[in-house]
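Hey, I'm writing a tutorial for new members on how sequence and structure tokens pair up, and I'd like a real worked example in the thread rather than a made-up one. If someone can provide the structure for the chain below, I'll link this post from the tutorial.
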Amino acid sequence: MNKKINLLILIVIIILAMILIPLLVKNQEVSHSEDTNHTINNVNILHVTNENFDDEVLKSEGLVLVEFFADWCPYCDDLAITLQEIANENRDIKIVKINADEEIEIANNYAIYSYPTLVFMQGGEEKTRTLGALPKDDILQTVKFLNDIKNN
């Protein structure tokens, strides 16, 4: 009987955690819109909307890294820091950010269901994508690989 009660208590704790943790993350005091990570204060990273997506992404000739993020996503903060480092060190890499909660049409067109998602676009076409907050070296290796393919 004691084991059944302990199991029941454990199940209730797990269910409460599944309910409360997303609420706590969503209600964090500092969000992307207030945070320097996704505040567009750097000329090296452009905030893209439905209005400028075609010009800034689809019509770009070179490689474009498109980060789809959400304000409530803590992993997006990590990737934002990494992308800021890449933008500061590599002025030749075009990086844009799209708030998927605000630009729903673009997110739906690219089947964005996880955050952060980094889509590598070249010549208006998706070449590859990654999910999650990858290390800087992994992102730069992907950029190098795609540039090597284009140049060969």
